[in-house]
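User: Structure tokens for this complex, please. No commentary.
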Amino acid sequence: MKYLYLVFVMMAAVYTSAHNHTMHDMDSHNHEGHLHDTMVDGKLLEVDPKRFDDFVAELEGKQVAVVSVSGMVCDFCARGIEKTFSKDKSVLKLDVDLSGGKVLIAFDKDQIIDFEDIKKKILSNGQNATDLQIIKI
Amino acid sequence: MMESNNMQDSVYYHYSPSYKYSLGIQQIKDKYFNSNYSYLRLTYLLNRRNTKNSQRNLYLQSGLSSDGLDHYFYGTHGDWETRRLYAGFGYKKTMMETLDYIEQYLQVGVAPYIGEYGDLHTWLMFKAKKNDLTSDWDTYPVLKFFKGNALVEFGYSDTSNWDIHLMYRF
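Assistant:
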């Protein structure tokens, strides 16, 4: 019985340690004012932190659509995405993150962001938009 | 798009109404047959598979010569690429009044570094090609660079000399 108790205590210690480590990892990224740590619809925003912070630096009061795109593996091929969205007057700013497979699109705070329209624009260039997260800056 | 190799020099202007196909005119200075002609070309994307880290494409291509209805080509080409690796192939059969010939190539490459959007991107590649009119398979190194809307590709072999490919996207 004594050994069982000892094993139980050790397992509890290991679990607590692992859990605390996880919490510590999350806390360590929780810098105040860094929106890249934001949870959107229960999902952590997966963007390159520096890239995202640079992108939103002058977008106070705006909103940013973070679009996950599949098939965006080549700079030359992704050029059309920038070209397509540049024709949309509601788009204030755009960035292509090839490493993260994301397109960041800034809109005015009152602009309705239509994911179906974004999907069509991305598809017109041959890639697929798979997810959308909207961040209020 | 401009191409130059031991067989021909060409300039190709094309327009893509959708990502599925493109139409264009290719003007050719044919060094082997010592002639000049144009192709009205159609390229169709037969299949594309996008994943988070890769893209795979299979195209059909065809062209009808300004020389007449008995001079045309058809074929297929495809590629698979990630941000680090590339593999591609091509097969093209040209029909002329006097003879037919086939061109084939295989190409593989690796990006020595992963550039970000807007950076200069570099690929180190090997290309193996065969043209029925000239020789057996010829394998040679190719360097590919692109930045923004411009792309340049240089290959060189002792057998077929320079293989140059320039492209600009408007």
